[in-house]
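Sequence in, structure out. First:
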Amino acid sequence: MSELFSMASPEEQKLLIRTPRILQNTWDTFRSMGRRLPTDRVDLTFIGGGLSTAETLRLLCERLVDAQKATSRKQRIETRVVESYCDPSGAMSGSLAFGTKAQPGFLLSATVQNCGCPEFHDWLLLNADEVFQELSDSNDILVHSWITENKSLISSKHFEDMHIPRKIFGRFAGTRMLDALYGAEKSGVLRKRTVLGEAVNITQDGTGYKIKLASGDFFYSQLVVVAIGNSWPRVPPHLVNEPRYFLSYANGSLERLSREGPDLLTQLPEEQRRILLIGSRGSALEWIHYLRHQPRLLKLACEISIVSPREGLPELPKDYCQSAETLKEMGLLTFSLGRISSIHKPRKTTQALVVEFKENPAAQPVFERAAIVVNCSGRGPIEYTSSRLLNNLAKQPNIFPTTPGRDGFIVGTNCEVAHTPNAFVIGPLLTPENFREGVDSISTVNRVANELSGVLLARLGGIGDPH
């Protein structure tokens, strides 16, 4: 501990002093990234540090501790988690939906009593005062609106029917994972290290796998779990630096729209001040909810238009649906059935983008002018995503075979990649048809984590360093 403290800057030392004991290992792994990554072989690697990894790792830690008590096991599993962003404030910091940088006002799609995790309600009751005080101190407009609308339920601690901010659930899940991790490390059955970086390829190496990072570093792992979240669409080359084109998932997109959107709209005639959303799933509904709370944008926009091949919007959470109904009543929100084929960029920035789409494959193209386009379409064919890792895995069909629709990988009932032993895929990359309740739901995450942690325990039974 003294060596770790001496490595830290004065600001970091202050944070370390008030860091709970179960977080000190996370801090240690964060600081260790100043050293060159060793190329030794580890037992287990997770690619991605989001909710799916946190739940699977938590349950694996608990199972390993229980197995040690039952069998006097004297082996330690060496584990690494590769993620592109991590800070010492807690676990899952890099998760777009639940982590440190997640939008604080975005909500769980299910209520507390229906989210598939009864322990969350108990944790909320114990930590309500601290959690909601931190929310009250936030300057986020969505958070303040949510607190105002749910003030009576918060004060009475009737959380059952509430849609809670996802970031709060992320804090709960991260705390549980760190607690289990601390217990496993204290018992000597597992050691976890965080690798800060982007994994860009996984190749077979003997009975295990070689994991290559964007930095050029690499290491070897006996088992690997790919859990990098959604396969987001790649930005068309001609729109890479286009200020009027937004990606729904990109960090800072909402803030940039709030900051730059009014100027982008005022450059155009009133009849062309359209904000167009591509897609009609959860991400689009989140943006509708956000726009509902942006009075400057609403005053300037002539229309908020949704273009999607699917009819209708999700029915939950109710806060989002109320925002959509409000915008409809204001005469701003419209819906068009169709699929985007291209976005044409005009020569002048004072001209609107031209969006081309078809209502059905046989129909004539329809052209819409839009001052701002937000891509909320989510997953797409793996080879067209922005992920270098997924692009490279798709080039190895013998190792990582893709589904017929190429929107995920072919896996067995235990999430193991078909014909590829000890390589697993979890999270949104799982094919949706395998899960009636949706691959993104917390109940699915918990169920998959429970099943996979058991499989990993069995596979790790014969490996690990004696201690």
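Second:
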Amino acid sequence: MRAAVESALIHAEKIDCRLIVSDNSGDAAKKACFENCSDRLTYIVPEGDDPAVNVMTALLPGLSVRYVNFYNTTASMAA
């Protein structure tokens, strides 16, 4: 997942957008790595592990921006 986020951050810089990551994995190492790694990254840890809640958590703050949502190591992109 780290390589995917780093790649997405490079892309976000090139197209001047924010990357929103909603991570319900509970992985403390991931949180430590991504929580403050870039001004372009918004890292969110939702309550629980419900995939639908995780997706909605990523979508709500990013409705007017391009976003990338990573959950359960699956990535999706939308404009």
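Remark: The beta strands are 19-22, 41-44, 67-71, 74-78.
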